[in-house]
């Protein structure tokens, strides 16, 4: 039964609220070990206990938070691409299984590198006053690496690529398309800020809203890049045809760019 007018609008809004809440709850349940240690860290007062919770979160994140986040991105990817009637439960856990290995390996990489950079930054800024410039460089690299996580999850669910290629391209697109990434970060910050005022919103909508906004920006970026690549390819073909008509021999250009190697997922 299809509603029209005001009732139709209310029905569609209710549908979207349900989608976001349902997918977010699945994400939090599958990431529950990480969030358990996070909540515990927020409740403890001792520095030693807080440090222990940091280590615990770092250990469990690659095996729980990263695969669950990849599964959440797989769901919102369908929504952004127009398939709003996808079965959330089956899509979530199918993607969780399919992307578990890559997301786990990527999680180990990110956690280790983030910890190393954070320790280096702290050491250079607090113990080597004459080498603080190195600490500033480490901070910049730390921010770039952290922000590249947005692209990492988008790429892992959108393309059939090796994990090393995904990691490299996630960082690369963060550097070459900074404005779109900044927009993603600002939108996510707004969600987190509102969630800090109303914690229930984080529980029901925080992760799914951020994932949706992130993949929306990612998809817009890569659609534009693919259009540019097609125009370049078309121009190259036209130049080759013109050269052939003139009797010139020209080798076909070797195109090994990552966006042409990647095979988009279904």
TrEMBL record:
Residue numbers spanned by region Disordered: 237-266
Oxidoreductase as UniProt keyword: no
Transmembrane segments: 20-39, 59-80, 100-119, 131-157, 169-194, 200-222
Tree of life domain: Bacteria
Cross-referenced Pfam families: DUF624
Start-end of Basic and acidic residues biased regions: 257-266
InterPro entries: DUF624
Keywords: Membrane, Transmembrane, Transmembrane helix
Name this protein carries in UniProt: DUF624 domain-containing protein
Organism of origin: Paenibacillus dokdonensis
Lineage: Bacteria, Bacillati, Bacillota, Bacilli, Bacillales
């Amino acid at each position: 039964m299809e509603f029209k007018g005001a009732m139709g609008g209310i029905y569609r809004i209710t549908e979207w609220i349900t989608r976001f809440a349902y997918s977010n709850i699945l994400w939090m349940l599958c990431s529950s070990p990480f969030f358990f240690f996070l909540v515990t860290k927020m409740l403890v007062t001792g520095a030693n206990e807080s440090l222990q919770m940091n280590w615990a979160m770092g250990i469990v994140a690659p095996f729980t938070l990263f695969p669950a986040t990849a599964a959440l991105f797989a769901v919102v990817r369908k929504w952004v691409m127009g398939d709003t009637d996808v079965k959330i439960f089956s899509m979530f856990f199918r993607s969780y299984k399919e992307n578990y290995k890559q997301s786990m390996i990527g999680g180990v990489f990110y956690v280790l590198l983030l910890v190393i950079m954070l320790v280096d930054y702290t050491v250079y800024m607090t113990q080597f006053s004459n080498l603080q410039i190195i600490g500033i460089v480490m901070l910049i690299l730390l921010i770039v690496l952290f922000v590249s996580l947005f692209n990492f999850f988008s790429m892992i669910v959108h393309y059939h690529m090796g994990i090393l290629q995904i990691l490299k391209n996630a960082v690369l697109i963060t550097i070459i398309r900074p404005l779109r990434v900044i927009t993603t970060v600002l939108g996510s910050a707004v969600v987190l800020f509102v969630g800090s005022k109303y914690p229930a919103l984080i529980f029901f909508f925080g992760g799914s809203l951020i994932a949706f906004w992130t993949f929306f920006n990612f998809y817009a970026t890569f659609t534009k890049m693919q259009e540019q690549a097609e125009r370049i390819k078309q121009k190259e073909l036209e130049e080759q045809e013109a050269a052939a008509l003139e009797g010139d021999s020209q080798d076909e250009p070797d195109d090994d760019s990552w966006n042409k190697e990647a095979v988009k997922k279904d």
